Amino acid sequence: MKAIPIRHITTSHQQQSYTGRFSIRDIQSVLNGADLVHDLHKHDFYFFLALEKGQGFHEIDFVRYAIAQHALFILRPGQVHQLQLTADASGYLVEFDPSFYQPKSSFTEQKWKKVTNKNVCEVDENRFKKLFFFLSAIFNEFTAQEDGYMEAIKATLDLFVIELARQSQHPARISAGVNTYTQERYEELLRLLETNITQIKRVSQYAALLNLSVFQLNAITRATVGKTTADLITEQITLEAKRYLLATPNQIKDIAWHLGYEDPSYFIRFFKKHTGYSPDAFRKNFKEVPSN
Predict the structure, then answer these.
(1) Is the pLDDT of residue 291 over 50?
(2) Region of residue 130 (left: phi > 0; alpha: psi -120 to 50; beta: else)
(3) Which residues are CB-contacts of 208 (< 8 A; sequence separation ≥ 6)?
(4) What contacts 164, CB < 8 A, 6 or more positions away?
């Protein structure tokens, strides 16, 4: 069973190992005068891509976004993506381990959960300039490496997260009028699904992890996105299957086993019911994504 290809943080700052790795690069230095083409892969770290300008596409967990000015993309560890970016793009690429940045206040932690629940944030030019100002300050600290630069970076990340959360007050998939408690529990469920879906598939198990009843958990998911918890479990299983079908050469039976299905035929029926394709047909039809 082959794992999905994982790319690692590019940094020469070896002394960071005990506090987690961190890197920020100017997009122009990454491109080096050539178009960028990254095939499907995933990371075990957070990945922020802030673009002043550029063209191309960014596909995150099989949702394709056109590259636009003043766009910021956020990937959580474990998500798969592919990226095509033209050589004239400008901006910053930020990468860091989950252990590197951990908000110290409950307020900032709540904002952090909010912003990392979205994959893309497009804002107007003036608001983007404020976000970009914080990233430029982080870049300068990382480049100069003066005394206390890592603490300065983490403090500036706090400011960046708070400002980004202001641009993410009402994510499109969250229903209007949902209170903070309900939204926070919903976001907590999503994180549990991402990390446990291959072992845990019952609504009652997730309810127990959240110290909720099944009725309470379903009320939360219906209020936020109009779906049952079972619907979200099905979506996460399907997403994980898609990741392995397109990013690895593994046989269908091995992917079924990875997802916790001892009977490959049951997995094939499940996948076709929820996608309209057999696993093999999905892999053949979507393996090659045409360039823009």
Answers:
(1) no
(2) alpha
(3) none
(4) 72, 111, 115, 121, 131
pLDDT digits (tens, 9 = 90+) for 30-73: 999 999 998 888 888 999 999 999 999 999 998 999 998 898 99
**CB 25, CB 47: distance < 8 Å:** no
In the chain, where does the domain assigned CATH 1.10.10.60 lie? Answer: 180-286
pTM for the complete prediction? 0.79
CA distance 167 to 122: 8
Burial degree of 290 (CB within 10 A; 0-12, 13-18, 19+): exposed
Query: What pairing do the DSSP bridges indicate for beta strands 80-85 and 90-96?
Result: unpaired
Q: Was domain 21-166 assigned CATH 3.40.50.10860?
A: no
Of 268, 272, 75, 222, the residue nearest 214 (C-alpha):
222
| Mean of pLDDT values over 92-115 | 90
User: Which is the CATH superfamily of the domain at 180-286?
Assistant: Homeodomain-like (1.10.10.60)
The sheet that has 90-96: what strands, in order across it?
A: 22-26, 90-96, 46-53, 71-75, 120-122
